[in-house]
Each structure stands twice: as structure tokens, then as C-alpha cells.
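Milestone M4 deliverable, item 7.
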Amino acid sequence: MITLQKDTPKFTHPELIEQLIKVGYTRVEMALEHGDISVRGSIIDVFGYTHSHPTRIDYFGDIIDRLNSFDPDTQRSLTPLARITFHPKPCDNKPEFYSRQQGHCTTDIISTFQPGDVIVHENFGVGYFRGLTRLSYRDREDECVQIDYAGTDKLYVPLDQLNRLHPYSGPGETPPKVNRLHGSTWKTIKKNASKTAKNIAEEVYLLHQLRQKKQGFAFAEDTENQINMESDFQYPLTPDQHHAVETIKAHMERPQPMDILLCGDVGFGKTEVLLRTLFKALENLKQVAVLVPTTLLCAQHYKVISSRLEQYGYIVGELSRFKDKADQKKVVNKLKRQQMDVVIGTHRLLSSDITFKDLGLLIIDEEQRFGVSHKERIKQKYPNVDIITVSATPIPRTLYMSLTGARPCIQINTPPPGRRPIKTVVGIAQDEIIKAAVTQELARGGQVYYLYNSVKTITQKLKSLQQLLPQYRFEIAHGQLSENELQRIMVQFYNQEIDVLLCSTIIENGMDISNVNTIIIEKADRLGVSQIHQLRGRVGRSNRQGYAYLLYDEHRPLSEISQRRLQKIKEYTALGSGYQLAKSDLEMRGAGQLFGREQSGHVAAVGFTLYCKLLEKSLNQIQNKPNSDTKQLPLNPRHITISDDYIPNPRERMALYIKLIDLKSVEDLTQLELEITDRYGGLNQRMKDVVQYVKKQLSGYK
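Output delivered:
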């Protein structure tokens, strides 16, 4: 063990680095994972193997002048410490867990651009990012970004033009065509893309305006029952939940039909938000329909909603394939006569025989499981009804609509108190890892999901798992079982009569079982990013630590797409990452599904990010709104170049350059200076000059 104390010269700066490496720590550029050491001048960042947060150690000579914990995602200091003990690397041969990855850090910390990435310059087109480089000019060196184009063409981008660079992502797996630096080709490509974006923007805006002109129902203010019902909830709402509830209620009280996207990560309390808005509709004597993708989720919602509404006399019904024909007919008749207030149903709700006497609110839960035709069908049937679409990972089309401002999007980003990030391991499927994972979970009284998405060979898999772990109780669950059999198995699992549930992706939108806190996903490389995120969200829903094992076959080489997919999961393992995953998935899945064939060619030519910027620009013009990048702080690139002996990592320097050109006030600069000092130590002379120059520019900036 290595124990350090503030103001005590036990180890010199180099001695501490040497001792930490001896006991199993690894020197890296940025301390983000357990076992990392990062050295920047007098500062040593260490992420202890047994610590929840990394530690920042700042030396003044041979004395520890500053000792504090810091947040690995923001790299900002947290709590001052008097002393700290670092334990050696554990020798238990357990698989490596990923709780955070560099990719999760945004341009606030480290640039997302890496050498070799395809990049788009707004004025010059598609090329390859080669990183920061220094060019000599008279008596000094200035830093700039190098982009390689077709042939031997190179472009050196000044630091004040970094906001014109965009990462490239487009449809399909074919690499984009790299432009020549000179000529009129890029101007023509961009002009055509802008024209198409303008046409889409006009269409989107027109649809939005048409809906706004329709006459909807203006719900009244909250009743006494509403206040009592909300006070029944045993937990305080998170700030984001409270904001979501108030925002949706405000929209419901307007006379225009509401169409809102509610996006909250798995287990972040979306159901409670829906319950409160649903109750508001009922208090206004309206009926409510909740559309869900699976019978299991239907049953769970029915149980939760009916228990909360029971004392208020509202009647809740359920429509799914678990119900026989006679029961379904009773529900249908009650809806027609408004003898039923709330119905929770699967695709059965979309049938032609379903008629509501006075539907006021439609909730579409887990919308990524429904096709566009399904959702459009019910919107056409009830054009004046308020709609809430809910998802942890909204599908690209819906996300795109909210990003472009055509549809309000409310995000729930804060986890409930006590919720922990799910520890995730990505690796080869091996018996030792599987055995250790199952044994560890069951030893603490928990249960396990083992996801095996091949019904044809799932019985053989069951036999091999029973041979590997004969002391535990297994059962199989998949969509080809009869309704009664599947329901029986899920009830047994819920009642803890089964230890390990070997299942298909049917659990993706299934029952919330707080005792299940380990999931093993075999052949994870064959699943989509959002799907893996959703499946992983089945565990860690209590205050117990959740574990997810994403395994792949060592005999089946990973494709480039599969590698990127698993890397994205590593990058977004922190809580609240569902929305970011959806944005990432939106780019990875390409533009064909978003814009159709006519537009996808333009997206491929300019990249998804730039195309969205062109789209946003067109929408702003239509709505007479200013563009976000019309005003930028005028900075001379030669006066903001940072020395690499102060910040050696070029990706960190790049991130700081982006922050500098985005500054809006002297107060923002003061805050940034504090962050820089915290992470890199006292400013050297060059950095002081940069700060003074930017401060002078900001003083005259309006």
C-alpha cells in the first residue's frame, strides 16, 4: 500500500510515479479507469483500484501542495483530502470492467477527432484529419490542424476556424469520396445539399405548423385529486422528472394538440412522469391509451398503473395476446362506451375495431419497437389527441425531428438517488468468465439474465450451461413459447424460483425485477447499439451494483461495424447515456432511413453532421431565427497557440482551442482559467499570454 498525506514529503514526484508503477498502475494520457496514472508537470492523477473517484496530487517541490478527488468525466476537482491510500493491483484474474472510457469525454475534456478520422471542412469538403501541427512563421511557430485531401493536397486550418470542422458519418459502410482541395466540385456538392435541406426544412416546418393550427383540448389546471395522487409517490422527484412533469402539463393546458418526445435513460423514472400526466387527462374526464411493444411490458404497466389509480375509482384495462377473445371483446366494448378510462395494450390497440368515445391522451412507450406506419396510423385516426412518445433510446427519425426543432424533446438525465452506473465487460465468451459472473451474482442472493438470441439452438445452450453450473436452476424464455407458458416462467422468475433465465431479446422491454443485477449477452456484436443499451438496462435498477457482460465468439472475427458498435457501448457506459447512444446510433445507421433515397446521396456527400447543420440553418431562416454560429469571438490564431510542454496531449489542446473560440464573456474565461489551473497546474508564461489576449478581445466583444 502507498499512503500519501498533504504537506508531507514521503515520496518525491518521480519516486511516487515509480512506486505506483511497481504495484501495478499504468501510465496513460488521462486517468479515466481504475489503475491509471496521468502525469502533467507537477500534477499526478491516480485512479486507485479501490476508489470511487480518481485523486489529483499536485507537488510544490518535494511537498504535496494539493490533494483532492476529481470527477473523471469532467476532470474537475471535487473534495480536498488530508490523506489517501493506494492499494496494489488485485491479483484475482477477474475480467476487466469498463465503467468509463475516453470516448465518453466530450470536447469539454478531449477532442473527439483522432488522426485518421474522416472529417468535413465546410468550405473545402471531405478529407482525412491528421491532427495538430506547427508551422513556422517568421520568428515563431503557430499551431493549426492538418487535413489531407485527394492526391498530395493538404489544408492547414487556423485555430479560429475549428468550428467549421465536422466529423464525417454517412450511409452504409463504403468510405466517402475524398475531395480534391481545388476546383468547384465541393461548392456544387454543398449547394445541392443545401437546396435539398431547405426543401426538407420547409416540409418539416409545414407539418409542424399544420398540427399547431389544429384545435385540440385545453386541459384544466391540477385538481385536488391530482395533488393527492402525486403525494402518494414514496420518493422525491429528481429535478429532471419535476421539469418533465411541469413542461408536459403546460403543453396539455394549451389548445393545440401536444406531440412531445420524452427521453430518459432506462430506470430514470419515466413511468412516474407518465402516471402524473395520465392522471391529469383522467381528471379532465378523458380516456387514455398506452401503446406498448410487448405483452410482458403491457402486464407490468397494467399492474403499476392500476395499483396507483385504484383508490380514485378509475377503471384500467389491458389488451394483449395474453387475454382470450372474450376478455378482449369486453375491453373493446367498454372503450366505446367510456366505461373504461385507461387501456394498456400492444399492437392490438391499432386494430380497426378499437374506438374510443373520448380519447384525450395517447402514450407510445418504447417507440423504437414500432414501425412508422403503426404510429402514423394512430395519429391519423386521432389527429387532435395529445401524444407523448417515450423512449430511452429514441429511434433516429424521431431524434432527428426533435434535434431540428420540429418537435419538443424533454430529457431526464439525472438518475434516481442511489443508482449506480452498470459495470460492463466486453470480451471473448469463455466458460471461466461465465461461471465467475453467475456465481458472483447468485452468491449475493441475486438472479441472472443470460441472453442467447437463437431459438433454434437455445436448448443445446441450456444443456451446456447446466453442465457448467449444475447447482443452479435454469429456465428458457423466448417469443415462440405459448402465452401461458411464457407467463408462467416469468412469474416463477419474478418469485425467485429460477436462478438463471436463458432468454432471447424478449426481455428487452420486459418486467422490472430488482433482484436481477447481472446480464450476460452472448454474441453481443450481432446486436444494435441501442438494443444492447436497452438490454443492459434490465439490471442495476435497485441500489445494488449491476453487471453486464458483452461477449463475442473468439472464432468469429469482429467486423469493423461490430467493433465500432461495441466500442460505442464502452464509451457510453455512464448513467444517462441513452440519448447520446441514440445520437451515435443515428449516425452509425446512416441517413437512408432518415431522409429517403433522394436525400441520402446528399448526406453521403457532405456527411450527416454538416447536413444537419444545413438543415438547422434552413429551419432557422424559415422561422426568422438567428443561426447559432453567426457570431464568434474574433481571435488571431497566432495569439492563442498553447505550448505543448504545458499541455502535451494534442487532443486536449484541441479541446481547449474549441472552448477558447466559443467563449462569450470575461466571466466564462475566468471559469475556464480555473479549470485549466486545476487540471494542468499554474499557468506558464505562454498560457498567461493566451489568457490575457483572450480577455482583451472579450472586453471589446458584444
